[in-house]
Design brief:
Layout lengths: L1 H24 L3 H4 L8 E6 L2 E15 L4 E3 L5 E6 L6 E2 L4 E5 L2 H26 L1 H32 L5 H59 L1 E3 L4 E3 L9 E2 L8 E4 L4 E8 H10 L7 E5 L10 E5 L9 E8 L11 E18 L4 E3 L2 E7 L5 E12 L2 E6 L6 E5 L11 E4 L6
Parallel strand pairs: 1-21
Antiparallel strand pairs: 1-20, 2-11, 2-15, 3-10, 4-6, 4-9, 5-8, 6-7, 8-10, 11-14, 12-15, 13-14, 15-19, 16-17, 17-18, 17-20, 18-19
Length: about 425
């Protein structure tokens, strides 16, 4: 097969040379020879073999991965709007201020209720009613002791008829009354103690409930000032000053998109994905981003994620990459191309694209032989690398290929080769 391919290349070269000779024969005698004129100058490049990385390009689009919709958490009318559409905002930056008066009033009411319940709790903890009941019990116990002493003193006197039995009867009645008073006072103390404990627990519950109500009112007051949840580029407001914000509204107030890093999604075929995997860790491959105007983005990116299945309709897999975007040059929704190295050709020969001429399906170049005569070569090409083409057949390292001046030469003509240099090099 290789001999056949070489034979075809030689045959094509012969056909092209014959065409040039035929054209020269039809021209004037002055054109068929140098005619004593000095050889025309041409610009040539010496071909070299080198290891060439092969890049593939894939259509891509930027997007914001963690965009956030800004919504109101409480109801209220917008009193202030404090940003401009397209502005860069920081996390926590103030965006909207609602009418604060209802929420300030709710905070004041909650503070008053809490103060009242704390005062009631303090009063309950002092146990004033229990202390009064215990004091009454102490008085009843003292009266009982005195009644017992009177009974004990009169009993022997009545037996000796030194005191009237009527006095003893009065002492017994006083003793029975004192015992009843002590029992009643003791029951009152127990009841008061239980009531005091219940009152303390109930009042303490009210204190906690009022504290929670104050926290809720304070939180609602904070929610009435709407701040940026994340940093990024903010969009336009969907509600003007005076508009009503509701907590369960379907549409957000605005959106914020983070720009650093910027995310890019692109799709590869199943075979391309497998080729990437064979080359190593996909996340380690450096990605280049070519923008819509043909310029290359200054930062390199890396693949961060891939979807979990191949799309059966298209046979492609979506890859997601992130690019540093510190200057916020890229915005979500832009189109471009992702360039990634997919292969490397060893000892490849590159020829400038401008040196290649196409005649129907044949690719040819002019080569300057060691005796400065022009030869025509048919070539086979492979991938394009920048402004050059990889040549697989027809040329070798060391050949001098004409880059400029092809229109002034023909096969067999002697030329004056001069080295070709790129502009700016």
């Amino acid at each position: 097969m290789r001999q056949r391919s070489n034979y075809l290349c030689l045959l094509v070269a012969a056909i092209v040379a014959a065409a040039w000779i035929s054209a020269a024969a039809c021209s004037s005698p002055a054109q068929s020879k140098n005619g004593g004129q000095p050889p025309p100058p041409v610009l040539v490049t010496d071909l070299r073999a080198a290891d060439v990385p092969i890049f593939s390009e894939f259509p891509a689009q930027t997007y914001a991965r963690n965009s956030v919709e800004v919504r109101g958490r409480v109801d209220g009318y917008i009193d202030k709007w404090l940003f401009h559409p397209g502005q860069q905002v920081s996390a926590g930056e103030l965006l909207y201020v609602l009418d604060l008066r209802p929420y300030e009033a709710a905070v004041g009411q909650a503070q008053g209720n809490l103060a009242q319940s704390e005062a009631d709790l303090d009063f309950a903890r002092k146990q004033v009613a229990l202390l009064q009941a215990e004091a009454n019990l102490a008085v009843a116990q003292a009266n009982l002791v005195k009644a017992q002493q009177d009974y004990d003193r009169l009993t022997p006197l009545v037996k000796e008829e030194a005191a009237a039995k009527q006095e003893l009867d009065a002492a017994v009645a006083a003793l029975r009354s004192g015992e009843a008073n002590v029992k009643a006072s003791q029951a009152n103390v127990d009841q008061t103690r239980l009531s005091t404990q219940t009152q303390i627990a109930s009042t303490q519950g009210k204190v906690e409930a009022n504290r929670a109500a104050l926290r809720t009112a304070t939180l609602n007051l904070e929610y009435a000032t709407i701040r940026a949840p994340i940093g990024g580029l903010i969009g336009d407001t969907l509600l003007p000053v005076g508009g009503l914000v509701t907590a369960n509204a379907q549409q957000p107030l605005t959106t914020i998109v983070p720009l650093d890093p910027i995310w890019v999604r692109f799709k590869v075929t199943e075979s391309q994905y497998l080729a990437f995997r064979k080359r190593g860790n996909l996340s380690q491959s450096a990605l280049l981003l070519v923008l819509a105007d043909g310029s290359q983005f200054s930062q390199q990116g890396h693949v961060q994620n891939s979807l979990n299945q191949v799309d059966p309709k298209t046979g492609t897999l979506e890859l997601q990459a992130s690019f540093p975007n510190p200057q916020h040059e890229l915005l979500p929704g832009q189109f471009g191309k992702v360039r990634v190295q997919t292969d490397e050709r060893k000892n490849a020969v590159l020829v400038p694209q401008r040196a290649i001429q196409q005649l129907q399906s044949m690719m040819t170049v002019f080569v300057v032989a060691p005796d400065n005569k022009v030869e025509v070569r048919a070539i086979s090409i492979a991938e394009r690398v920048g402004d050059a083409q990889i040549v697989t057949q027809g040329l070798k390292a060391g050949d001098r290929v004409i880059v400029e001046g092809q229109l002034r030469v023909r096969p067999g003509m002697i030329v004056q080769p001069q080295p070709f240099t790129k502009a700016g090099s």
